[in-house]
């Protein structure tokens, strides 16, 4: 995306392209088929906005939504979203009754079974549960040695009408490194755990194991459903493959306006610590995003795009701002110009560049963009009328044209990769429309 104007004024903004979300979901559906797709929208949809992203993902054919916490699921229900939702991370303080009453499925690793059953008894309504086996990740999930016991207890409660065991699931540890053999072991252990559950009489609706890297690299891990997060946001889980190579379109563009632009002599120190000194007479540009906006303070060696050119971020990132050295005095006064930190498209740094610069992963770069940064949604024309909160709608032709181009480009990449001319995911990039949230 290389827009230089916005239909609405902004100082800083995360532009979320819902057409890209839809295109990515459709693409992942094709890869996963016949398995279904659960769109993982925890952590405010990895910083993209859980409610608009959930709606876009469902429009594009995702059958389920996945969240970590019941509270995240409850927020989706309050927004009028009635699709199946699974929440998988709880503590003894979790309000299981509220989640069950809202029809949210519960991931159960062991200890949760009794409090969930107690809540179901109190509500006089069976809880829908997915039993989680730890196939090797070592986080939650039932240890294999205790699996048979968990399954048997769940069967008993199901017979008493207190539970409906809908699924069995697990989570992959190293699918982002496709050569690693541990994924084979996890798939094998998962098959064994499913067999134990089925032999105990459970009639499972969904068996699910794969995250985005598993979906993209391990067809044998698809089972009945894949749980995809990163991929629906258009980012690559693999170090050596770009989103474009995977047929994905990054959905988030993070941008700001130049807040100050000044010429300085050689030897000017920049930002706290004065760790950076200009090496020549130059122009410094101030960008009004800092670690309070989710920009990692630790980042070094990254660039931003201004007017189609890339420039280096220099000195320390502060709470509200960082500095860019143009290394020229010929750029003119850039006050108010658009600065793109990352986004899709040629000539623009991407979230992966920032991840490398901050010593982290692209997941974190988008997820940490803080609530102080307003989200601006494009590609909203076919948003469903489900009674969601009315939001101001503005025309964003430039952004939406860019969204259409990206979706078309991604469709071409997919067509080439799949060699399937009648592929049904020819995304309708939609009419101009944008929502400010
Ligand atoms: C249990 C579970 N499933 C699926 C996902 C989605 O993973 P990804 O973003 O790699 O698709 C996550 C995210 O961490 C998760 O915790």
Q: Can you describe this structure in just a few lines?
A:
By secondary structure, this protein is an alpha/beta fold. Helices cover 30% and strands 21% of the residues.
Q: How are the elements arranged and paired?
A:
Layout: E1 12-17, H1 18-32, E2 36-40, H2 42-46, H3 50-59, E3 64-67, H4 70-78, E4 85-87, H5 96-101, E5 105-108, H6 113-123, E6 127-132, H7 144-159, E7 163-169, H8 182-199, E8 206-208, H9 212-217, E9 225-228, E10 252-257, E11 260-264, E12 269-270, E13 276-277, E14 282-287, E15 303-306, E16 309-314, E17 322-325, E18 338-342, H10 351-358, H11 362-367, E19 375-378, E20 393-394, H12 397-418, E21 434-436
Helix pairs in contact: 1-3, 1-12, 7-8
The protein binds pyridoxal-5'-phosphate (PLP).
Describe this structure in words.
- Helix 1 (18-32) packs across helix 3 (50-59) and helix 7 runs parallel beside helix 8 (182-199).
- Strand 4, helix 5 and strand 5 form a beta-alpha-beta unit.
- It contains twelve helices and 21 strands.
- The two termini are 20 Å apart.
- The strands form three sheets. The protein has an eleven-stranded mixed beta sheet. Strands 8-7-6-5-4-3-2-9 form an eight-stranded parallel beta sheet.
- Mean pLDDT is 88; it is low at 1-5 and 382-437.
- The protein has a domain at 34-233: Alanine racemase (TIM Barrel, Alpha-Beta Barrel).
- With 437 residues, the chain is of the alpha/beta class.
- The structure holds pyridoxal-5'-phosphate.
- Pyridoxal-5'-phosphate binds at residues 40, 88, 171, 211-213, 227-231, 237.
């Amino acid at each position: 995306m290389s827009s230089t104007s916005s239909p609405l004024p902004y100082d800083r903004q995360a532009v979320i392209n819902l057409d890209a979300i839809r295109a990515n979901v459709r693409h992942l559906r094709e890869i996963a088929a016949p398995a279904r797709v659960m769109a993982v929208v925890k952590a405010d949809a990895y910083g993209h906005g859980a409610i608009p992203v959930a709606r876009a993902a469902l429009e594009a054919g995702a059958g389920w939504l996945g969240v970590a916490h019941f509270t995240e699921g409850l927020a989706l229900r309050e927004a009028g979203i009635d699709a199946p939702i699974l929440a998988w991370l709880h503590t003894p303080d979790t309000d299981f009754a509220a989640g069950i009453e809202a029809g949210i499925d519960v991931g159960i690793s062991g200890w949760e079974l009794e409090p969930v059953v107690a809540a179901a008894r109190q509500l006089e309504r069976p809880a829908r549960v997915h039993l989680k086996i730890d196939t090797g990740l070592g986080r939650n999930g039932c240890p294999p040695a205790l699996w048979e016991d968990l399954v048997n207890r769940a069967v008993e409660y199901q017979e008493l009408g207190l539970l409906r065991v809908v699924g069995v699931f697990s989570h992959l540890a190293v699918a982002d490194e496709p050569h690693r053999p541990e994924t084979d072991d996890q798939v094998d252990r998962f098959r064994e755990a499913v067999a134990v559950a089925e032999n105990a009489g459970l009639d499972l609706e969904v068996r699910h194991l794969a995250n985005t890297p598993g979906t993209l690299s391990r067809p044998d891990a698809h089972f009945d459903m894949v749980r995809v997060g990163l991929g629906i946001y258009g980012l690559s889980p693999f170090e050596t493959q770009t989103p474009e190579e995977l047929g994905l379109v990054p959905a988030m563009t993070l941008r700001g306006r130049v807040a100050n632009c000044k010429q300085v002599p050689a030897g000017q120190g920049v930002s706290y610590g004065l760790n950076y000194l200009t090496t020549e007479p130059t122009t410094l540009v101030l960008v009004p995003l800092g670690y309070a906006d989710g920009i990692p303070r630790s980042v070094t060696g990254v660039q931003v795009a201004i007017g189609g050119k890339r420039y280096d971020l220099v000195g320390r990132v502060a709470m509200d701002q960082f500095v860019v050295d143009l290394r020229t005095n010929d750029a003119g006064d850039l006050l108010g110009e658009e600065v793109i930190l990352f986004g899709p498209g040629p000539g623009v740094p991407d979230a992966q560049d920032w991840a490398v610069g901050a010593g982290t992963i692209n997941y974190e770069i988008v997820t940490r963009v803080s609530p102080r940064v307003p989200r601006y949604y494009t590609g909203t024309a076919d948003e469903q009328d489900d009674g969601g909160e009315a939001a101001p709608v503005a025309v964003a032709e430039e952004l939406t044209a860019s969204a259409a181009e990206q979706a078309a480009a991604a469709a071409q990449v997919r067509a080439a990769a799949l060699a399937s001319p009648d592929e049904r995911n020819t995304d309708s990039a939609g009419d101009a429309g944008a929502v400010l949230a």
